[in-house]
Amino acid sequence: MTAVLEVRNLRVRLPTDDGVVTAVDGLSYRVDAGRTLGIVGESGSGKSISSLTLMGLSRFLPGAEVSGEVLLDGRDLLAAGDDELRRVRGAGIAMIFQDPLSALHPYFKVGAQLAEAVRAHRDVGRRAAEARAIELLDLVGVPEARRRASAYAHELSGGMRQRAMIAMALANEPRVLIADEPTTALDATVQAQILEELERLQRELGMAIVLITHDMGVVAQVAHEIAVMYAGRIVEHGPVDTILGEPQHPYTWGLLTSIPQLHLPRGGLLPSIPGRPPSLISPPSGCRFHPRCVHARPEHSAREPQLEALPDAPDHRVACLLDPDERRARWQSLRDAASGELAR
Amino acid sequence: MAAYVLRRLLWTVVLLAVVSFVTFVVFVQMPSADPALLRAGRNPTPEVVAAIREQFGLDQPWYVQYLKYLQQLVLHHDLGYSYQSNVSVGSEIVARLPVTLSLALGAVVIWLAVGIPIGIVSAVRRGRVSDRLLMVGALVGISAPAYWLGLVALYLLSKDIGVLPLFEGSGAYPTGGESLFTDPARVAPALVLPCLVLAASFAAIYARFVRASLSEVLAEDYIRTARAKGLRERTVVLKHGMRSTAVPVVTLLGLDLGILLGGAILVEIVFNVPGMGRLSYEAIQRADIPMIQGAVLLGGLVIILLNLVVDVVQALLDPRVRSAAT
Prior knowledge:
The structure holds 2 protein chains of 2 kinds.
Chain A: E1 5-16, E2 19-31, E3 36-40, H1 47-54, E4 65-72, E5 75-76, H2 82-88, E6 93-96, H3 100-103, H4 110-121, H5 126-139, H6 145-149, H7 158-170, E7 176-180, H8 188-205, E8 208-213, H9 216-222, E9 225-230, E10 233-239, H10 240-245, H11 250-257, E11 308-310, E12 313-318, H12 324-343
Parallel strand pairs in A: 3-8, 3-9, 6-7, 7-8
Antiparallel strand pairs in A: 1-2, 1-4, 4-5, 9-10, 10-12, 11-12
Chain B: H1 2-29, H2 35-40, H3 46-56, H4 62-76, H5 89-124, H6 129-143, H7 146-157, H8 184-218, H9 221-228, H10 233-270, H11 276-285, H12 289-317, H13 319-325
Helix pairs in contact in B: 1-12, 5-6, 5-8, 5-10, 6-8, 7-8, 7-10, 8-10, 9-10, 10-11, 10-12, 11-12, 12-13
């Protein structure tokens, strides 16, 4: 099966006042139709910039340098002309954003914004587009869609707004949906509803989803595959069960053990990853995670790890200098410590 | 909304009363000249001056003068008569106002038509050479005072004294009380230079203002959404971007129309345009208090009403304000 979306060796460099930031540094992944890839990482790991780049929105960031390939059904979008790329946006690849209140225009009615998305790619009349807008709102589970279509963004609840954003993204039945922190601004219950809605729509429309989040809980719920990003690179990539069950990278361990767990006693300190994400103007030498890694050895600051498949699991790839068996043992002891806490 | 507008209109009356009182006190207590002496002609006898004082009631205490003025205004809707020419202030304003309105209208059209497109181009091409050149031009426009720019424009461009008479027919404003509304064919050419001069600094300010607020809007999340939908960049900027920029621009425009009246004084003097600005200037020179009062009250009324219009238009433009108000 050929991938709907394939990213090869994507690099994005952005000028800032302090120097040039290499926000994305050699990113590669592929997503198939009907599948969801979760990209997980802290703020500043380059996950959002990489998703903007997929749609060519990086062209609006002054001075951004992009290299590599972004293949949508085999066609390289980075090499496409501005107008060709515009026709892909919203039709081939669509995107939903973190904060639907700021992502919707405050002065246009929601229905009109949806109709505009329809008309951007289809030669239909105003009336037909407005009818389609109401249909779309209905599709994403907005009750009283007709009435809601003539509301402004500030008049809707957070969940309804995000549904409207999803409806807008689905207006032209895209091949790929990029969801950048789609539930971060929402209540926990609404969050679950939105994720279920995305899963249902994916089943019905068969699109590929790239879900970008810092929340392991969210990817665990909907992703088929997980890519963990750190400092502009993927450090671990594999099927969701593998990453959650047998993670191999110390950074992934940190992400997994810092999720609050209901079964753990209250009052205990939540484990966290020490330190802060590194500067991407001058990233650490060797393994980029070594300054924060409790398992690092002195020689790890000199050698760069490569993202390599495990000998016994070809779809599980890790960029870590520790020996795979040692990593297994360490994760085992970390997990035992956590369940020991539970037993106490 | 209707109740709100009504309340504001009532406040207008109060504000105008305050404005007229302050104006009266200022000019009676600190007159720029002695109106009776000016009126009396060369080498008047003290008796003549005293007679004139008595005739206009200038010999009475200032509060009596003010109360009499108010009485005339409120009971008879009469703004009084000029100390100098005996013409009715009301009819003089009726004659002069259309001239100033012609000037203001022309200036507003020019400054919006020039300032807004420059601002848009600058915002879209921010940081590039074209943006820098336009903004340097705008800085020059802002820095040049209207009276200086007016004299330069006359010297270079006008038909009667210019060395490069570019604007055919531009020059003396007709003297028969014509305005753009009664005789556009004769007035329009004469208004070209005054309008350009009056519009220059405003156009420059609007170019910078539109550039600043549009640049800010273009960094908003909803602009990214508009692009992500696959809209053309033209639609993104002119529809989504300018729709948001319109709100502060309309606000600024409402306030500037008031300031424009002040600018009109200088331009009308330089170009000898017989409008409200020149009328006020001459009235102040001669301490012609009824005329000053008339001009100030009119100016105050215009500014207060414009502010009200701005607030209403703003509510109409911004659905968030609208739903907060109802």
